[in-house]
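Hi U.,

Before I forget, here's the chain from the pilot set. I'm dumping it here mostly so it's searchable later in email.
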Amino acid sequence: MFKRLFGRERNNRSITNALYAEIVAAARQPFFYSDWDAPDTPLGRFEMLALHMFLFQHRMRDESGVSREIAQILIDEFFAEVEHSLRDLGIGDMGVPKRMKKLARMYYGRTASYADALERDDRPALAAALKRNIRPDSESWPQVDALAGYVIEADKALAAQDSEAIQAGTIRFPVAGAA
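Structure:
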């Protein structure tokens, strides 16, 4: 269906590449690391990318057809990039599958807790989940409430974006710290 709608595979790839690039750019906003104290480590960057991938997937959750296919392609791309990153970090062929299973469990566990908090409009629960996942090494993380506010804002901003625009490769995340 995806190929029928857009005609050529190259167009499909440019659309998903554009969406994935926006998700990655949103996750790499320097403000998360410099002002909100997200760990600027491989695991910290995974957490921020996983959070933004969750936000995209959460936006697409009730969609069908082409939108659902795009969402699947992007989650597949996310896990392919995670696997590639593990290999770049020097993890050998024998260790990659085990770590991928662990990272997949981590991702899906996070998405469940983030979605639950967003759907209940429970900012304290969202902040607790973010702290537990992103900064488990810290007793306190004063900036987590600001990050929770960003996640709520991003969820609302993504929900307001037109499905056709997303299907054409355009999605916009808020600027961290702008509010």
